[in-house]
UniProtKB/TrEMBL annotation:
<keyword id="KW-0067">ATP-binding</keyword>
<dbReference type="GO" id="GO:0005737">
    <property type="term" value="C:cytoplasm"/>
</dbReference>
<feature type="binding site">
    <location>
        <position position="172"/>
    </location>
    <ligand>
        <name>substrate</name>
    </ligand>
</feature>
<feature type="binding site">
    <location>
        <position position="122"/>
    </location>
    <ligand>
        <name>ATP</name>
    </ligand>
</feature>
<feature type="binding site">
    <location>
        <begin position="97"/>
        <end position="100"/>
    </location>
    <ligand>
        <name>substrate</name>
    </ligand>
</feature>
<dbReference type="InterPro" id="IPR004619">
    <property type="entry name" value="Type_III_PanK"/>
</dbReference>
<dbReference type="GO" id="GO:0004594">
    <property type="term" value="F:pantothenate kinase activity"/>
</dbReference>
<dbReference type="Pfam" id="PF03309">
    <property type="entry name" value="Pan_kinase"/>
</dbReference>
<keyword id="KW-0963">Cytoplasm</keyword>
<comment type="similarity">
    <text>Belongs to the type III pantothenate kinase family.</text>
</comment>
<keyword id="KW-0547">Nucleotide-binding</keyword>
<feature type="binding site">
    <location>
        <begin position="6"/>
        <end position="13"/>
    </location>
    <ligand>
        <name>ATP</name>
    </ligand>
</feature>
<dbReference type="GO" id="GO:0005524">
    <property type="term" value="F:ATP binding"/>
</dbReference>
<comment type="pathway">
    <text>Cofactor biosynthesis; coenzyme A biosynthesis; CoA from (R)-pantothenate: step 1/5.</text>
</comment>
<protein>
    <recommendedName>
        <fullName>Type III pantothenate kinase</fullName>
        <ecNumber>2.7.1.33</ecNumber>
    </recommendedName>
</protein>
<dbReference type="GO" id="GO:0015937">
    <property type="term" value="P:coenzyme A biosynthetic process"/>
</dbReference>
<keyword id="KW-0173">Coenzyme A biosynthesis</keyword>
Length: 241
């Protein structure tokens, strides 16, 4: 058994899976305030052959997770120059978010053709992966919720309540919601244009906020339930302790 942990800026996602067969035994997600509840996983953490995680939420969160799991050692993924068939062309490879690195590794294992890897969470990242496995570069934009909140925070007249998606929004709430969703979908479709003519080009979409704009995307699309955890499992399988 292996315990996988994806610590993002909004939530901690975890998955317990059979290391050899890849069968998922249990999984869940917790907001940061509830990290201590990971303590209920202590027996599994103790009996797991390994705990592998990615963390972009800061060292304090990593420490709280380790404490909740009873001080068990956690292998935190660090982005490198290459792993599992993915080459990292970031100017400073270590600067790349560990979750993006894991997602790229997971994406490569799912689809070994040109792809756009989208993680819609607190932030939305839109990363280009070439057919040969090169991470060519990517976008970071505020996630849907953060975009909406920033309008409420930065203006006098815009509320934070959320409206509905409309192609031609005719009230403030719908205009805000639709604007933020169109911005996400537009960014993804524009990045996809760079690979659109390549064989089997695909957009892989994951993350807690993906539901909001998935149906707006007019490109070949595959939804994946937590690509980061999948990538962590792929990494762990090819990097034994
Ligand atoms: N039940 C939920 N709890 C928290 N966030 C949710 C929930 N359902 C959807 N979301 C959306 O998902 C986002 C968090 O997605 P997630 O992939 O966990 O992000 P991160 O990796 O940044 O922590 C939130 O910003 C919110 O827009
Ligand atoms: C871009 C991110 C904030 C996304 O975080 P998330 O929305 O998954 O919580 C995270 O991957 C990060 O902090 N990255 C480091 C900078 C970079 O990737 O260039
Ligand atoms: K993200």
């Amino acid at each position: 058994m292996i315990l996988l942990i994806d610590a993002g800026n909004s939530r901690i996602k975890w998955r317990l899976q059979c290391a050899s067969k890849g069968r998922v035994e249990a999984e869940g997600a917790l907001v940061h305030d509830d990290i201590d509840r990971l303590a209920s996983l202590r027996p599994q953490a103790l009996s797991a052959a390994r705990i592998v995680g990615s963390n972009v939420a800061g060292t304090a969160v990593a420490e709280r997770i380790a404490r909740a799991l009873g001080g068990e050692h956690i292998d935190w993924l660090r982005p490198g120059q290459q792993a599992c068939g993915v080459r990292n062309l970031y100017e400073h490879p270590l600067q790349l978010g560990a979750d993006r690195w894991a997602a790229l590794i997971g994406a490569r294992a799912v689809h070994a053709y040109a792809s756009v890897v989208v993680m819609a969470g607190t932030a939305t990242t839109v990363d280009l992966l070439s057919a040969s496995g090169d991470f060519l570069g990517g976008l970071i934009l505020p996630g849907v919720e953060l975009m909406q909140q920033s309008l409420a925070r930065g203006t006098a007249q815009l509320p934070s309540a959320s409206g509905k998606f409309r192609l031609q929004p005719r009230c403030t709430l719908d205009a805000i919601r639709s604007g933020c969703l169109q911005a996400q979908a537009g960014a993804v479709e524009r990045m996809f244009r760079q690979i659109a003519t390549q064989p089997d080009a695909l957009c892989l979409l994951s993350g807690g906020a993906a539901d909001g704009f998935a149906e707006l995307l007019d490109i070949p699309l595959q939804r994946i339930d937590n690509l980061v955890l999948h990538g962590l499992a792929v990494f762990a399988a090819s990097h034994p302790q």
